[in-house]
């Protein structure tokens, strides 16, 4: 299983593309034990973008105890999935960028209602998966 492709696929499945670390770990564990199909699929996708680095290329950002997929990340994932069997040209991969220093207001930006809404949505997803 390719870790970076799996992270992109998990994050894109969440509303707003954000997942807290506990949700990411849970989903990774589920996918890692789901069988060979998932492992083969992520390897095929990863082969289309051999120089993939989700953090230095700005595809995923870390914030508020979790990770969020960026628009660049969504675009690259769509590109990887749209071209079966073809590698993504290096010119279409985002260039690695130096990571900016974290800004204080990023960690404070989410209000209490938004955090509560995300927790509620995560509980609902967990209940739906369990049934």
UniProtKB/TrEMBL annotation:
Residue stretches of biased makeup (Low complexity): 88-98
Species annotation: Bradyrhizobium xenonodulans
Top-level taxon of the source organism: Bacteria
Compositional bias (Basic residues): 112-122
Disordered: annotated segments: 84-131
Protein name per UniProt: Uncharacterized protein
